[in-house]
């Protein structure tokens, strides 16, 4: 059995090996479950951002500024560090 301490590349390789051994029907179930986990993680990350005081308003303002072209090029503000 694998351990939580595995590196990401090792875990991905192990997962791919397991997926390749599944029947097409079980592979579909695994894919559906991974899609569920992916959506869940995305939803949790979104909720985390929305819990930051003032984030939603700041984000709306930033989107509006971008749509109006009120932006500064990264090259113009970048500092060599």
Report on the architecture of this protein.
- With 81 residues, the chain is mainly α.
- The chain has one domain.
- Helices cover 70% and strands 0% of the residues.
- The protein is built from 4 helices and no strands.
- It starts with 7 loop residues before the first helix and ends with a helix.
Topology:
Blueprint: H1 8-20, H2 24-50, H3 55-67, H4 74-77
How would you briefly describe this protein structure?
By secondary structure, the chain is mainly alpha-helical. The protein has one domain.
Poorly predicted ranges (pLDDT <50, ≥5 residues)? none
The count of strands amounts to 0
Can you give the helix content as a percent range?
A: over 70%
Report the portion of residues in β strands: under 5%
Structural class, from secondary structure content? mainly alpha
Number of domains: 1
Secondary-structure element order, N to C: HHHH
**Mean pLDDT across all amino acids:** 89
Task: Count the DSSP helices.
Answer: 4
Described by the principal axes of the CA atoms, the overall outline is elongated
How far apart lie the N and C ends? 45 Å
Rg from Cα? 21 Å
Largest sheet: none
Descriptive terms for the model:
mainly alpha
């Amino acid at each position: 059995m694998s351990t939580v301490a595995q590196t990401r590349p090792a875990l991905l390789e192990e997962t791919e090996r397991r997926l390749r051994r599944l029947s097409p029907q079980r592979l579909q179930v695994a894919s559906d479950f991974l899609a569920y986990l992916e959506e869940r993680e995305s939803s949790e990350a979104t909720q985390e951002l929305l819990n930051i005081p003032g984030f939603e308003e700041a984000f709306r303002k930033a989107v509006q500024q971008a749509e109006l072209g009120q932006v500064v090029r990264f090259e113009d503000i970048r500092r060599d560090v």
